[in-house]
Amino acid sequence: MENKKVAVRKLFLLLTLMLLSGALLSGCMTTRNMEGKPIMPADVGKIIDGVTTQSQLVSMFGPPYDIVKDPLTPGAVTYKYRFYYNKYVHVGSEMLTPSSEKYKEKLIVKIKDGIVVSSSFTSTGNVSLKEILKNRSAGGGD
Questions:
Q1: How far apart are CA 20 and CA 2, in angstroms?
Q2: pTM surpassing 0.85?
């Protein structure tokens, strides 16, 4: 009878350790949020106001994530492109986001009658992370 109690206790202890180990291992997790594709500055440099066409823009960057029509100017639209990367580290139920693991790019292009009128490009975040992501999108590795 005593041996059965010892065996049950050992089994209970083993199951408890397995559950605790699983909880601890799953308690710290990293997730990445990435939207869009990296915008290459070399391609942004190819946009020439008054010369670049709407179809050339789409062939360089693909379809925009948003198109806004200008209600006051017939034939005018704004194409919006973005790339966003953020690495989240979860510890238990808390979410930590180190600022060194964020990167964001935004390209806004105004088009009138199929020709680019103006464009603006901004990027913020970690430059080394930017290079890693650019290399990844170009088919390179880390």
A1: 27
A2: no
Kindly report the three-state secondary structure assignment for every residue of 66-135: EEEECCCCCCEEEEEEEEEEEEEEEECCEEECCHHHEEEEEEEEEEECCEEEEEEEEEEECHHHHHHHHH
For residue 110, how many other CB atoms are within 10 A of its CB?
17
| 105 in Cβ contact with 99 (< 8 Å) | no
Q: What are the φ and ψ backbone dihedral angles of 96, each rounded to 5 degrees?
A: -110, 135
Buried b (16+ CB within 10 A) or exposed e, 15-52: eeeeeeeeeeeeeeeeeeeeebebbeeeebeebeeeeb
Query: Cα–Cα distance between 136 and 127 in angstroms, integer?
Result: 14
Mean pLDDT of all residues in 31-50:
86
User: Higher pLDDT residue, 140 or 70?
Assistant: 70
Q: What angle do CA 103, 107, 113 make, to 5 degrees?
A: 170
Nearest alpha-carbon partner for 81 in 110, 100, 109, 42: 109
